[in-house]
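Bench notes, afternoon.
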Amino acid sequence: MAEFDLIAKYFTRPVTADLGVGDDAALIRVRPGYQLAVSADMSVSGTHFFTDTDPYLIGWKAMAVNVSDMAAMGAEPRWATLSVALPEVDEDWLSGFSQGLFACADRYGVSLIGGDTTRGPLNIAINIMGEVPAGEALRRNGAQTGDDIWVSGKLGQAALWLQHRMGRLDLHAEEVAKLATVMHQPQPRVALGLALRGIAHAALDVSDGLLADLSHILTASGKGAQLDWGLFPLPELPFSQVARSTMQQAVLAGGDDYELCFTAPQLRRDEILQLAQTLDVPLTRIGGITAVPGLTVLDGATRIELSHKGYNHFD
């Protein structure tokens, strides 16, 4: 199958009237009074997913991790481009992958407006663009002393699945199935990100592990943080016993969560809790921002020390 036939069959769809697609570049129109938010993520076989993963799930997650970046900025996801290297033309794989990709894109209102294909080791690169009212984007550099630190959902579930998959943790089949869904089909918190505009001082999505990602907020804001392990909502594992240290490593540094971590004034606590009910999204206060740089996690009176604080591609 020729390159443009492949693109036409699996990745070409009708586009909206405000787009010009089909030339050497797509033309987009940003609404007056809005800024363009742009991000990019790659998904590499053997690094971000196992080779035997269902291609539908690979497609969903490849798009979802990019949508999550828009959520973290308080931006409405709008457009994306896809570049993919393929070792061969496998039409069954392409069919499943494109279905998963577009299922996620449709869920969050994203139009695929261009990209590229080539031969090579399996690598999926997506550039995503969104719109946010000028001056209202959620940034990493706005955390203030005394802010509460919040997270959405439950952290550590994807990391626990990965530990099971790699033979390092024995879990019950029902638990594995639930954790696998979290790992392979993350649900970006777009509605939450939009609602946090004007409430949160700083925000990001948790992709490489909470401690590693929160450190980006602290560095950009010139602040520190203290977290309380006793406040964290933990993954529900009714059939298995997981060592406390294993759970702490997964929740604090596991990665692949794609939940939002944000800071907000203490005076907004009731508003944030009401927001959790309105959006049906669990929001948990896990600590606070301090004036003194550094990141401390306390389990009672004991400081938690981890060997790894998050994922690093070049470790």
